[in-house]
Amino acid sequence: MTQGGTNLPRVGGYNQAVILDAIRTAGQVSRVELAPLTGLTSQTVSNVVRRLLAAGLITESGHAPSSGGKRRTLLSPRADGAFAVGVQLDPDAAVIVVVDLSGEVLASRRVRLTDLGDPARVVARVAAAARRLTARTRVDPARLLGTGIATPGPIDGTAGEVVLPPNFPGWGRVPLLEMFGAATGMPVAMDNDATVAAIGERWIGGRARAGSFLFIYLGTGIGAGIVLNNTVLHGDSSNAGEFGHMTVEPGDRTCHCGGTNCLGPYVSPAAVLADLTARHGRSAAERIGLAGTDEAVHADWKVLCRAARRGEPAARDVIRTAAARIGQAARGAVALLDVDRVVLGGEALRGIEAIMCEEVDAAVNTTSVARAIRRVSVERSVIGEAVGAVGAASLILHGRYAPGWRMLTQPSP
Amino acid sequence: MTQGGTNLPRVGGYNQAVILDAIRTAGQVSRVELAPLTGLTSQTVSNVVRRLLAAGLITESGHAPSSGGKRRTLLSPRADGAFAVGVQLDPDAAVIVVVDLSGEVLASRRVRLTDLGDPARVVARVAAAARRLTARTRVDPARLLGTGIATPGPIDGTAGEVVLPPNFPGWGRVPLLEMFGAATGMPVAMDNDATVAAIGERWIGGRARAGSFLFIYLGTGIGAGIVLNNTVLHGDSSNAGEFGHMTVEPGDRTCHCGGTNCLGPYVSPAAVLADLTARHGRSAAERIGLAGTDEAVHADWKVLCRAARRGEPAARDVIRTAAARIGQAARGAVALLDVDRVVLGGEALRGIEAIMCEEVDAAVNTTSVARAIRRVSVERSVIGEAVGAVGAASLILHGRYAPGWRMLTQPSP
């Protein structure tokens, strides 16, 4: 339970990750520059760079302009050094991507999930589609590190299970990690969708996502991912960033936990669509062109967001109301964590990025810390709509290559 | 901005901290047991133990019962290995303590602050009192490491300044770190009161405070301290744990940030005392024996808490209402951070620990994660009322001896 010690082999692995991270963040950098960037000696930098070149993770990519003496060789990451598969599992569909070490998407596919009541069939279907997609990309199988799964929470991280996920009715405890491992024959990692999205931003975002940030993820539900000092917060039970139970001004909605002041029930696409009819009548829904059925939530949400973007007043009103509640929760989270950046992303954000960023920005910048000491920057995902699936693939790459505390020490028994 | 690397000297310092931490946590432990506890080799353990003995930080404290072979020598921390001064600065008074390495209070004093408008006089007064108190304890000056200051936020950690603290009217940017350094002639560290209290719990609480927890601090204002995986969260601007801007159900109070749904304005002693008169009339205030003036807030709060403890209905009502709002904020914070323990403490908690724990416990254990995966334990401070001042002293001891990420690596420029 207390902190574990460290030793030389761990230090070697850690410093290798530090140097790879510095090269990835810089894009192109010389050995000489790496020493001050990492705080390591030139001798250590040379040795590690040799190992990274041999492993095919970086390449010599040219020379810096001469500054009098010998021209410095520049190092860059090799995109084809490693690959990973990412799966974003949502009640509506699974999005599958194959990405390279740089985070670029080589191939992607959306698989509609129909037989949602049977987790085994869902896994079989998704694994088969992932296999076909990977074959099509012709990546070197020896460099394909594994499959990352982004799933709605809650999850039991130790057991690798999702546990009674509210968005997958009928699912109890489902051992997704083991099931995907068996179905893909590859190493598998799993985390909740918002945390995975934050890992993707950290992995791919370079300098723009160094340090600390709160990632707010809008999908079927709402969630958050937390990065503090370049380290992803997983939490005691692997459920850090559960955002739906943040307290907001109460209305007439009841959360599955019994509360009337939980954020979750007020800001899901289904909830905001219901608000539209409740506040502006059926006529507004018809005018905007909403089907209004439970099955059409996914499609209706897109229609509603497009209407809001072109300025339709009723659509803007309900989306702004939801955005203000998200802002209330974000204000508390930012004050608690003291992060200077909030990133918004997820499939359900499409078309309403501007309204969301505006409301969240206003809310998080009211506190005394924000006004007297530092503003909080509110930004859109650098990855965009596929942040869940790309983040899931990053889970594998980040877990293997990002310099983390766990590489150096492990908690003692 | 990316992660820095590590090297052998850093590893040596870190492993020494790990072993001291393991000995402190265990209380008494043999060299043989330390290897599996820390994940270090017996050779490393032997070398580090020799250094810790020579530094006077631990002692050989007896022998384990024989289990056949040679009896094992047991190691214990030396309470007199190091000392620190702690100062808790509140608008009402400063509490000063001298503590030893084990966290035991050797001497303490409360200094009423009268000329609050003049920070220089406050510092001079407190520093003089600290000097007299330290002289009285006759601790070895060579082992007195410094003075820790717990101050209401917000603070500018980089500059060592408090910045427009709402509870110190008239204070702008006050460079407390520099002022106390000059006045005491000792190394000084400073952090906000709730974070400092959490550090104290972590430093002194042993196994009971290993891992992760959220500390909720009730003083003149409300604040939180956050410990994640044995590491204190300071935040990007050293203001992590600002709890007063967590959103709660709105009422008729306006926060200095303009919000009507910020926790802070509803749960300070002054606010709860005002609630009593508003909800139960002047007669209730008189019956309980409250003076009802601005100057008497500190004394009235104690009277109100005593009344609540003996079951006075109006007193219980307003305190339970405040506790429920704290519970709302705690639920969101616990879900966000995914910690399995909440600790309540601070001077203003005296007498109402039971009501507070009950309401917070009910609130944080409603979420799906709490119900399906793990309960959240809600506990009182192991240090008690002086947690702010003792925590301030721990800031010095913890900063010097606790094994932390910063010992191993430093962020690159």
Cα shape of chain A: globular
Strand elements of chain A, count:
16
Low-confidence stretches of chain A: none
- Structural class of chain A, please? alpha/beta
Fourth CATH level, the homologous superfamily of the largest domain in chain A = ATPase, nucleotide binding domain
Oligomer: homodimer
CATH class descriptor of the largest domain in chain A: Alpha Beta
The helix tally of chain A amounts to 14
For the biggest sheet of chain A, the summary is: 5 strands, mixed
Domain HTH marR-type (chains A, B): 15-61
Organism (chains A, B): Actinacidiphila yanglinensis
Pfam family, one (chains A, B): ROK
InterPro entries (chains A, B): ATPase_NBD, HTH_MarR-typ, ROK, ROK_cs, WH-like_DNA-bd_sf, WH_DNA-bd_sf
Compose a concise summary of this entry.
The structure is a homodimer of 413-residue chains. Chain A is of the alpha/beta class and 413 residues long. Chain A has helices spanning 8-26, 31-38, 42-54, 119-137, 176-184, 193-204, 264-267, 269-288, 297-309, 313-337, 353-364, 368-372, 387-401, 405-408; strands at 29-30, 58-63, 73-77, 83-89, 93-100, 105-112, 144-151, 155-156, 161-163, 173-174, 188-192, 213-218, 222-228, 231-232, 341-345, 377-380.
